[in-house]
Structures are given as C-alpha cells and as structure tokens.
Amino acid sequence: MSGIVFAIPGDIDAPTGGYGYDRRLLREWHEAGIEARHIALPGSFPFPTEADLATTERLLAATAPDDVLLVDGLAFGAFPEALAARFADRLVALVHHPLAMETGLKPEAADTLRRSERLALARARTIVASSPTTRATLETEFGVPASEIVVAAPGCDPAPRASGSRGGAPLRLLAVGSLIPRKGYGDLVEAAAAIADRAWTLTIAGSPDHAPETAAQLRSVIARDGLADRIVLAGAVGPDKLAQLYDEADLFVMPSLYEGYGMVLTEALARGLPIVTTLSGAGAEALPDAAALKVPPGDAAALAKALARLIDAPAERRQRADAAWAAAGDLPRWSETARIVAEACLRDRASARNAARGFREKPMQDQRAREQD
C-alpha cells in the first residue's frame, strides 16, 4: 500500500497558518492510522539555491518508489520543471496560495515564480487547494484543469467561547498573523489612529522574523502615531498564549490584502468573537454576514469605520458574537480536511478506502468535544 511522504520546506513548527495546516494533516493521519511521514526540505524556498535544489532532489529520490510525494506549495511552486518531471507520476501539490501573489515581491521575482509554478503544476498528478478561491486562481491564471484540483479547506477545533474584557476595561482588539506586507497591518494601524478617541487596545500576535523591514516600519508608525501604549506587537506566541489572547478578546480583526483562506477567521468564529475583516480570501467570503463586518482590502478608512461602528455599539457586538457562536458548530473539522487530502494522495482504491475508514469515527468524537465545551 502506498504511503504519503509530506515534503515541507523550512521549520514545520513555525507559527504560521500554512505550517499549522501541514502539522495538523500529519497529526490527523497518525491518529487515523494512515501511513505518512514528513521530510524537511531546505528552508531557502521559494528562492532555493542550486545546492538546495540538489538536496531536494536527493531527498525525494530516497523515498520508496510507491510513496506519494505530497509537496507543500512553498517549495512546489519553485520546483524547476525538470525536477517536477522526474517525480511527476507520484507528485501531489498542496497549494495554500500561489507564490507569485505574495505582497511585496519585486515584479521580476513574481514573474519568475509565476512561470515556475505554472510549469511545476503541469507536472503534478493531483493538486490540493486549501480553498475554492485558490482553486479558481489555479484554473484561471495557471491553466490547471478543474478535474485535477481537490479542495481541502482548513478545519477548526471546537473551542470555549471567549470571555472578553471585564468591567470598565478598554475594548480588546486582536489580530493574528506574521508581520509581513500581505497581512495589511499598516492599514490596521492607520485605521486605529483614526479612532484613537475610542477606548480600545490592540494586540497583534505574529512573528516579525519573516519580513524584518516590515516589522520595523510597523513599530515606527505605531510610535509616530502615539499608539505604543495601546498597540502591542506580541511576536510569535505558542498555542497556550494564543488561546489566552482569543479568550480575552472582544473583537477580532483581519486586515489582510490577500489570503488563500485565512484560518484565523474560523479560529475567531469558533470562539464566538465578532469580526471585522477585509474581503481578502475564501475564509472572509464564507463568514456569516451576521457575525462579521467585511470591508475592501487596502481601505484603511473603511476598516476604521467598521471598527468604530462595533466599538460604539455594544448591542451590535453582542448580536454578532452570538451569530459567530451559533455558526461555530457548523465549522468543518480537521479530520475531514485530512481525509480529503489523504484520498487525493493515495492512488489505489484499497488505500483510499482505508483512509476513509480511519476517519469514520472522527466526526462523532468532535461533536462530543463540542458538547462538552
């Protein structure tokens, strides 16, 4: 029976949505008895050196001939066509969002990534997209036939409802995601400055290491606008601290310019938080309108207006929080995500049936966990 070799570049424990998705697939497969293992590719992707490409080819070649090679899109989109062609009969690409669509890339770098990703995707046996938005982009802009794409949206764990701030404390706003240009935190700080006359604090939880210049600029703007005592850049936080931040929050905000999905939105929804978000990806589009205010990406004025509206209207915040909590019970679970990806990877019918069997009991277990919360 075929096994899954999940090739992921860099540090799989890095606190980002993409790595979190990857880690969760491996965990779910292990719990379901699916044969799967992780191999670490060089961390230089999506701009690998020739030496790192040689290392990547050597690592893939060392796998068993009947193993399925599931490659995270951070590396896959930068594969030279010859490398993808060598393993084409067993390559599956996992695409969170196309590499060329990362905000802040120089035009020549974006063009290079767009060409390499188009050529590599043409060699994949199957492509897994993490959202319908990504699937549509792959079809329209990268020429991938719809029949070759499987959508496996991120799952979400049941979680306790957020407690929020208590007493007369300022409203606590929370944003989660690495400090990179695509996350739109510059717009968020501009919006926050425009409503500085309201009582609020903002915590942004996300690593500054992926784009140090962006992080430094953000700190500078916060200081310039006199918001250093109200906006906390918490850095990368572990699961326990992140759960605490969600529990203490009154309002969740996502100002991203583009997202393949936006997993933090479902995490916020699962905790019954009212949300202000940009319409920047499938996650935002799928949010119930009753739970979230949605504004155009890159529009700081609209973001400020939406935040002010909910800060000023406690009754509306409660209504939207109740709508979020009501919708949380219908969120997809990670067991379903992992089952979809496993079945997309495993080539023979017996392997696919075994994958489905391994996940059969998971939905009921997840429901019981939800009821206990």
Low-confidence region ranges = 363-373
User: What portion of residues is helical?
Assistant: 40-55%
The radius of gyration over CA amounts to 21 Å
CATH topology of the largest domain: Rossmann fold
Structure write-up:
The chain is of the alpha/beta class and 373 residues long. It has two domains: 189 residues, Rossmann fold, CATH 3.40.50.2000; 158 residues, Glycogen Phosphorylase B (Rossmann fold, 3-Layer(aba) Sandwich). It has a six-stranded parallel beta sheet with strand order 2-1-3-4-5-6, sandwiched between helices. It has a six-stranded parallel beta sheet with strand order 9-8-7-10-11-12, sandwiched between helices. Strand 10, helix 10 and strand 11 form a beta-alpha-beta unit. Helix 14 runs antiparallel to helix 15. The C terminus is likely disordered.
Key traits:
16% strand; single chain; six-stranded parallel sheet; Rossmann fold; disordered C terminus; 2 domains; 373 residues; alpha/beta
Question: What would you say about this model in short?
Answer:
This protein has 373 residues and is of the alpha/beta class. It has 16 helices and twelve strands.
